[in-house]
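Progress against Task 2.4 (sequence-to-structure conversion) is shown through the following example record, which the project officer requested during the mid-term review.
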Amino acid sequence: MAIIFQEQVKRQRNLIYVFIALALLSAFIIFFAFYVRKEPSEELISRRFKKVKIDFEVLKSPLLEQLQLTEKTPLFEGEIGRDNPFVP
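Structure tokens generated for the chain above:
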């Protein structure tokens, strides 16, 4: 009986060591994945993103000047359905 108990204690101790090692490893990975980041270089940014140039002359086009604003839609007039449409 004592031998079985000793084996269980050894196994639990080994499992505790494995658990602590896994916890430290995951904390290490999370720390370096989220908190230690290098700033991207200017060259990398310029390769990945191009400068945006907005041409506002398009808004002065004669086609856009011909467009007219629509009138507001009038409110619904007349009978509305039941108060609770889910009641039979």
